[in-house]
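User:
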Amino acid sequence: MLGENNTPNNFKGQDGRYTSGEAMSSLKKVPRLSCDSFSYGAITLLLLTVALFSWFSSQYWLNQRIHLLLQDLQQQSQLVAMAASRELQNHTRTVENIAVALAGLSSTQQLLRNPRMTSRFNEDLQHYSQAFGLEDIWLVDGHGKVFAYGNRLPSSVNQALPLPPGKLTAILKDGSVHRFALDPDTGKPAFYYAFPLTRQKRIVAALIIKTSPNEMTNLVLHINTLVTDSDGVILLADKPEWMLHPLTPLLRKQPQDTLFPLLQGTSPLLPDIQLFGPQRLPIVQYQAEQPEADYRVHAIADAQPVYTLAENKDRLSGLVAVGVTGSLWGLILTVLTLKRNKKYRATMSRANDELVRLNQQLKSLATTDFLTYCPNRRSAETRLQQELANARRYGSPLCILTQDLDYFKHINDQYGHDVGDQVLQHFAKHIREAIRDTDLFARTGGEEFLLILPQTTLQQALPLTQRLLDNISATPLYLVDKTVSISFSGGLIQAHEDETMNELLARADRALYSAKEAGRCRIHTE
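Assistant: Predicted structure:
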């Protein structure tokens, strides 16, 4: 029935509810978010202020974070460098004490008085070398000539103690000499100590001790230690690939000049960070002061996380500003949207109710015959498949009855199709009232019907179906001016084990055709 507007989209259903067309037109009437130009300007100014404040605040806090991280790295580097320096100093004092003890031996004094008496002194040197884990001990005169040794005999004092050419006496006139250098034979770092031996206040010889320093203890993770000589060349390091590289550019020509210096300068991004190696890795370096030694102890901390944070500082600030501004804009939109939510929810609720009702109608149309209100062929086949599966699983009986109205074409031709429709409705109504709740009666064609009888054997189904036939035959359709008799022919079949639906329906059709050929108004089995 059409409404006042005579449009099919605005009609009401039998329950008085609006259809989907009316619901959707109601949705279109919901007002959009309203806001005048002053409000837009105020919101824009507020968002801009919040974005700038978020940007500068995040910049400040990121700078503070970078500063604290650098301080932490510097403190860790200082801790490691000082610990390694103390370890080398302890090693140096141990060697000095050994040298003082050797100088005070009677064999040493006897050798100084008579340079030919070297056997006893050599025994003492070998004993000390083995007892304290020393590599070599030599006794040389002021001209660098070795006249006593502990383990092996060097060719000259310059090989034993890498020194500039000249007399050893002039070098030792101000006291003992410390030297950290490479062993010319092994190429490994070694510590050399030269102690002067005097007689009548004149240096007559020098005691030279060679030893290898222990590896420096790395107290903090990601902190590397290294030791450079007086020229800045790395002689001891945690990583072997750093050995013999100059830490900084050398002031005078050295054999190691073919190797590049590891420190590549200061980072332009953070002045407290230096660039290290060919990859220009960011580091924090601390150098322990050694005023009385010719070596320097350095600690190098990996500053890549801090450097990455500094590189991405502007990007992170931008993300924070966008995030805060976006959150504020979302809050403003939420507040504005809440103003119209009541009307919107009511309209949506009405539209949803109508859509649910229409979906139910569509579902019913898809599974129900529009004329007799019986399940249609698709619904009947789905139910039959389920009952066949249950019969196979549980071994229960199943019967079906295919029905065909007798002389239905004659009824249509004699009385018209309107009467034929009433006959179909009359037939379906009486069959539905006579069957059980567990049975299914469906229209599968024009005048063709199917009755599914679950949990029923053929012997149980025969009297039931015969009673249906008798009731229909005894209940004609009474019209105003005429009476239409109704009967049907049926094919009753019990399902076999492992039988498909098509095979079952084919057997039922054969039984139905047999009933028609035998004179109609009867039920045949296979």
